[in-house]
């Protein structure tokens, strides 16, 4: 095998076990006879070395990827910390707290988010594309319907938005934990609801969010005139 194979074999992302001791790699569909295991991330990670690119090109690619990851993570951490400290605690739970206390809670929120992200970074629920799909599924199941109907449905109120978001994200989290992380008794592909994978279930949870939001908003008080005027200003700037 080429030198890159030996280099990356040390990482555990690609492994060769000569089961029949013939000195040849048998890459077969039969699990009992297959001697080669390949992690899907190896295709991206080892590609520069396989293509024999110079080290400075590999360094540029790595630096670009790291910069993109850090910039995205920084923005998300900022949103998470301010949502917890300002939107949740100061506006809802403790309006009288000082700026110093708000800053403390922002740091606690950011630190907690880093720990959760770090855990799933070390123990990912799937390869990169699958993990991103789960994240977008959670977004679709939670706040997308509230944003969309908050602008285009004048009858939408906070009761409908909250009920829809809670139902959507709870359903998506339950499905993801059950069929992806094997909680609540687990289940395999044959047990998927409507034949939908956890990565694609965000669409179904989003539809549940829409239905719950619409029904609850129609059976509760409509938003105030001030809110309606604000929505009009958003629709016709």
Overview of this protein structure:
By secondary structure, this protein is mostly helical. It folds into three domains: 48 residues, no CATH class; 70 residues; 110 residues, no CATH class. It is built from ten helices and two strands, in the order H-E-E-H-H-H-H-H-H-H-H-H. Strands 1-2 form a two-stranded antiparallel sheet. The relative contact order is 0.07.
Give me a quick take on this structure.
The protein has helices at 3-9, 42-45, 47-50, 55-93, 99-122, 128-142, 144-152, 158-179, 202-218, 225-235; strands at residues 14-16, 36-38.
Kindly state the mean pLDDT as a whole number?
Answer: 86
Order of helix and strand elements from N to C terminus: HEEHHHHHHHHH
Count of distinct structural domains:
3
Overall shape: it is elongated
- Low-pLDDT residue intervals, each spanning 5 or more residues: none
Side by side, the strands of the main sheet go: 1-2
Content-based structural category: mainly alpha
Strand tally is 2
Q: What share of residues is helical?
A: 55-70%
N→C terminal distance = 63 Å
User: How much of the residues is beta strand, in percent?
Assistant: under 5%
Counting H and I runs of at least 4 residues, what is the number of helices?
10
**Which sheet architecture does the biggest sheet show?**
2 strands, antiparallel
Radius of gyration (Å): 24 Å
